[in-house]
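Milestone M4 deliverable, item 7.
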Amino acid sequence: MTHAPKGINIRSNSAKKADMIGWLAKASGWPAVTSTSRLARVRHEAGLLADAVKRSEGGLVPIRSKADLAAFLAGRKDGAVGALLSIEGAQALDGKIENVDALYELGVRMAGLTHFVDNDVAGSAHGTEKGGLTELGRKVLARLEDKSIIVDLAHASQKTVDEVLATSKNPPSSRTPASTRPAPTSAI
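Output delivered:
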């Protein structure tokens, strides 16, 4: 998570409220730039993940591609965990399309367009406006798809979901036809 407004709730959150992650970053001793730059937060968190992978001695395996996932599953050791670096909320782009490339270089392979607030990319189901994709958001979606970064629609407004599905080069339904999905199972 790269941004969380003070007083966060499920109904409506303003992006103008104070950002609690900035305070947490300061209190946790993160580099000073992480208190204001969300991309810097991802850089720091990616470094923390890389350190954890090194310390795990093979117990934590980074997944950055389909090949990495296939190799992990084929050679999985008991107790090993695969790690996919993801962001919640495109605030991590700091408003710049080229930062999609920076996220990719850091190992991010899944990106949520929104989290608990509307942002300059898309509307959140928990935001104040609950709008759809912005002009920047359409460019971000295309760049994420070009980089094969999974687009996470959790927390997205209904309008954002509809617009992503309508404009995506690879909407989920084109990859997994309903006829090939496993039947739901009952917990009873």
